[in-house]
Amino acid sequence: xxxxxxxxxxxxxxxxxxxxxxxxxxxxxxxxxxxxxxxxxxxxxxxxxxxxxxxxxxxxxxxxxxxxxxxxxxxxxxxxxxxxxxxxxxxxxxxxxxxxxxxxxxxxxxxxxxxxxxxxxxxxxxxxxxxxxxxxxxxxxxxxxxxxxxxxxxxxxxxxxxxxxxxxxxxxxxxxxxxxxxxxxxxxxxxxxxxxxxxx
Length: 200
Description:
This protein has helices at residues 2-7, 15-25, 40-46, 53-63, 74-86, 95-105, 115-124, 131-141, 151-158, 168-178, 189-199; strands spanning 34-36, 71-73, 112-114, 148-150. The protein is mainly alpha-helical.
């Protein structure tokens, strides 16, 4: 079964696919173009995408190999992930969007949230953080003197904008822009007859 998988050739057509394949290969420990599906979230997030856990599960369902459950082959993973990036799915929030979200949580405009507010929001609203994720976030976000989260400062700490060549979504846009336009759809006889009728 695995020998057959090894035979599958996976062509790399552009820089986006090369980046995805390289991230995939880091976790291809057997060198047979297959990975454990548990590595998918690490690969996707390592590429710069921000899917929820539910969205990770959707990706796993889409790319998991039915012949060898628990694994995903590059031949299925590559086109699927290339497509979601080209469609700008799971793109991280911009600093402006994050700031707007914090302003919504701080209607009085204090410029900060308390540790308790953040802990409650992150562990109960939306997709809850694990305690480990919350501790990691608070370590960066909390001002040790005030024990609050001064969110503009926190956003600046958080946002190290990737350069254009390192941003996977910019790369996808560049590749899409370089594609030749699609040919015009074939015209039917009725189209020609209608045009002729319009001219008379």
